[in-house]
Write a structure and sequence with these properties.
This protein is an all-alpha fold. It is about 85% helix and about 0% strand.
């Protein structure tokens, strides 16, 4: 790619952008690209936070269900202990 840029007498940034930029337009386009990247990162972070909430809610729900089943249903002790450990295992 560097050889092609040397042959065409342009910079790598110009090649990647598909146009030759002058210094006035360059700063405006760089600011716009930076803003686009920041927006994409914010959207990505928002989606990750949503996924973390869903995983957390599901995990807590499974732990509580295991604890309720182990506490209120008449089952053998070893099964009750197994349900408690299953809930703890899901926590981690």
């Amino acid at each position: 790619m560097l050889e092609l840029c040397n042959i065409l007498n342009i910079s790598v940034v110009d090649l990647l952008n598909g146009e030759e930029l002058n210094m006035i337009n360059n700063e405006e386009k760089l600011q716009q690209q930076l803003m686009d990247v920041v927006k994409q990162k914010e959207e990505h972070d928002r989606m990750l936070l949503f996924i973390e909430w869903i995983i957390g809610i599901l995990s807590v729900s499974l732990i509580l269900i295991s604890a309720v089943i182990a506490s209120y249903i008449n089952i053998e002790e070893w099964k009750r202990i197994l349900l408690y450990f299953q809930g703890l295992f899901l926590l981690y």
